[in-house]
Amino acid sequence: MIRHGSSSVQFSVYQALLKRAARLLPAGVSVCFLADRGFADIQLMRYLRDELKWHFRIRVKSNAWIERPAKGWKQLNQYPLVGGEVVLLQAVKLTKTHAFGSLNLAMGRNPIGRQVWFVATDEPASLLTFQEYGRRCQIAAELLDEKSNGFQLECSEIRSAIALSRLCFVLAVATLLLTVQGQQVVTAGKRRWVDAHWQRGNSYLRIGWNWVKGGLHQEWRLFPSLSLRGQADPHPAVASKKQTQKQLEREFTVKSFSYAS
User: Fold this and answer.
1) Neighbours of 249 (CB within 10 A)
2) Other C-beta atoms within 10 Å of 136: how many?
3) Which end of the chain is more exposed for a tag (fewer CB within 10 A), N or C?
4) CA dihedral 193, 197, 201, 202 (to 10 degrees)
């Protein structure tokens, strides 16, 4: 935790954290770094690609400038995207101040909700780029568990960065243990004991939390093993059937431009 007045944090502040995280990861794994617009920093992108050898999907701001070889500079918001349209730019440079490239950009306007996305990637841009970046949105579910759906973190009203760091460490351990319990509950076919939705509606943490409460009050047995699966979720949470159906009905028109020499 750091005391800071903005969501945009300078690369020099968190570089050491990335370096330390890299040392904790198993050797030989492929890492893809996901970040929102507050981390659209070319220093970060260069460090991820050249030093850590990580891939990245980072959302950039609409007023960012890109250089297209032989085509000159252009702001991203000058592309007149219509709903359902995706523009893929391969081998461009980012920002006028310190041009960084070659990287790729996936730009698109959501046909549902009309939100515009600009995502920078070190790998070839495609429709899959949006799906990969979209995994970052799982953070919203985690924040819900940390706040109103679980630990009520904001009710602590702690202002000390050091004290908050210690508290979040405790919550991280609890999150791991409860999430593992939740996954085991679903695997054992007992989800409906603690989650009344026809399809999984609660997070694994919430399911594990309810199972532990059942263990205290109804003498249910806790699962003794700690096994956290990393593959695709076979039972993803569904907020609503209507929202899920809308996501499946999305259609896109794709335009791709390559400026590689």
Assistant:
1) 8
2) 15
3) C
4) -30
